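Narrative summary of target 7.
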Amino acid sequence: MAKNMRGTVTAFSPFDARADAEALRKAMKGLGTDEETVLKILTTRNNAQRQEIASAFKTLFGRDLVDDLKSELTGKFETLMVSLMRPAYIFDAHALKHAIKGAGTNEKVLTEILASRTPEEVQNIKQVYLQEYEANLEDKITGETSGYFQRLLVVLLQVLFRAGELKWGTDEEKFITILGTRSVSHLRRVFDKYMTISGFQIEETIDRETSGDLENLLLAVVKCIRSVPAYFAETLYYSMKGAGTDDDTLIRVMVSRSEIDLLDIRQELRKNFAKSLHQMIQKDTSGDYRKALLLLCGGDDE
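Modeled conformation, tokenized:
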């Protein structure tokens, strides 16, 4: 669990799992569903409390809360509520499993999760993946990706990797080796030095020298080393900018960062894009889905 608690969702007090379970059952029982009650309860309790509610729901009614949510809700609102119910420690492993499942790989999800999580979080994801899906995450990713993109993903997965263990030649290989050290303070100094020596930001060089999935991953790693909240602010901004909304990304980021650093992400969005996350959600979404996202957002940065 995150120690740095700059999230918008915190433990609800006074909390009564049994009362919440009863209110949810009442909201979904019989004809029609009281979506307002469902979204109010699930967005204002933290993940640990939601698990207690699910447990009370099972005990009281002999029913699975997630199954009931799936049968009573629809569309993006359903996806958001079910995502909120996923235990925090499983969330990333589940997202990665779906990113490498079936035909085609979702490189965007692999990039976002593996570039932004700390080495400890990555270690935890790998263990959970093994327990839950009886498969080795590294093997799965290696089987679905290729080239330097694959190499950097593997480096990000190998938490104990140290630069210098592998002597590679090309620029891509140097980038991968250097970024693989994952020492944030050291890498920030490296980026500053790079700017002094070359006159370019390292992002500009990556942009010029690489392309496609590898470029996206290298840029994501660099951005996360500079600032994880700024990286997610940019991710949210582009999920809603222009025509259409990338709802999968919007849901994934809002849920996964809601207890960690969503307050910081909101500040970065304001600072770097002169936008309020609240207003972007307001403009880009609708209905109960919008209401729930706005409650997770937790305020408007005018």
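The chain has a mean pLDDT of 90.
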